[in-house]
Amino acid sequence: RFAEWVKGERITLTANPAYDRPGPYLDRLVYLFLPDSSRVPDLMLAGAADYALVRPGLDTLPRLRGSPRLTVLTRAADTRYYCAFNLRRRPWSDLRVRRAVNAALDRPRLVERALAGYGAPALGFYTPSVSWAYNGRARVPAFDRAGAARLLDAAGLVPDRRGIRLTVDLVTPGYSPLPEVAREIAAQLAEVGIAVHPVLLPIDTSIARLLKLHDFDLGLIGGSQGPDPESLETRFGSRGSLQCMGYASPELDAALAAGARGRIPAERIAAYFRAQEILARDLPIAPLAEGVRVSVYRRSVTGLPQAEALGLVANANYSLVRLRP
To answer: Mapping DSSP to helix (H, G, I), strand (E, B) and coil, where does residue 291 land?
Structure first.
């Protein structure tokens, strides 16, 4: 039950004795609000908090893993990171350039350097965590920097005296791990002569730049794509609310519509597999990495929805949480 709200500081809930299911086993649940996530590791290590609702920076996880007081739990997630091309602008309207960028990206290196190894290279066009809908044959172009350079040459993007073919901005929200991913993209594309300048913005400003103003060359986007492949329409359909690329494919729209109205699994699978094949052909994005869910909590805490209570309660339900003495 709601007990207290101190604006900008905390919200306190107390146990509801009339709750008609198992629990709650905690007397109080206190949400602490912080100006940013940088303080989370210190609070967890000092024992001043029991559970990090916001994931700490990936670079802090080795230190947290080393604490005998803490558990750092990782699980597969439906979160993906991808680079969106603004097809309204040249040279992104040229498929050869989009293919070159995809071929120039060393995705395993990106996961290791930008995500501290927490994740996997994104090689397809939907999240593999929804395995029945994932088409593993619809893949990104193979890593080939020499081939990427040849494609850029063919598109008329030849290097200048400094070796630079093209200078572009990469717009991204400024919260971790997107800045780290943006810097790694810049480092990798520099190797084929594309100078990338990351533009780190507050999330509302970045959303406006990407979705409303369409004021970007490249956009770095992350987020959940589950639990159902209908999310593909939201991100890639010609009228999708998160589709910032200016990409419109009647063929893709038809496949997505068929998947949405499918009455049996086989119909939906065929439609969504086809949708991913179209995306692999047209390349409106460069898939980058598959995310993982990281949870940090004190070892005295049990019954979290992503740990012992997995599948028993909803994601934000803490009714089964206990504190061991």
So the answer is: strand
Secondary structure letter of residue 22 according to DSSP = S
DSSP 108-167: HHHHHHHSTT-SEE--SSS-TTSGGG--TTS-PPPP-HHHHHHHHHHTT----TTS--EE
**Buried b / exposed e along 231-245 (16+ C-beta atoms within 10 A):** bbbebbbeebebbbb
Q: Would you give the DSSP letter of residue 307? A: T
Distance from C-alpha of 151 to C-alpha of 157, rounded to nearest angstrom: 9
Task: Kindly list the distances between the CA atom of residue 268 and the CA atoms of 64, 179, 265, 272, in Å, as whole numbers in the listed order.
Answer: 42, 36, 5, 6
Which residue do the tokens 């210190």 mark? 42
Contacts of 169 (CB under 8 A, 6+ apart): 196, 197, 198, 199, 216, 217, 218
Q: Strand 218-224 and strand 166-173: pairing? A: parallel
| Rounded-to-integer distance, Cα 27 and Cα 321, Å | 11
pLDDT in tens, the chain (325 residues): 999 999 999 999 999 999 999 999 999 999 999 877 788 999 999 999 999 988 787 778 889 999 999 999 988 888 999 999 999 999 999 999 999 999 999 999 999 999 988 899 999 999 999 999 999 999 999 999 999 999 999 999 999 999 999 999 999 998 888 999 999 999 999 999 999 999 999 989 999 999 999 999 999 999 889 889 999 999 999 999 999 999 999 999 999 999 999 999 999 999 999 999 999 999 999 999 999 888 999 999 999 998 999 889 887 899 999 998 8
Task: Return the exposure string of 61-82: e unless at least 16 CB atoms fall within 10 Å of the residue's CB, then b.
Answer: beebeebeebbbeeeebbbbbb
**Size of the chain, expressed as the number of residues it contains:** 325
DSSP 263: S
Q: Is the dihedral of CA 208, 212, 215, 219 positive or negative?
A: positive
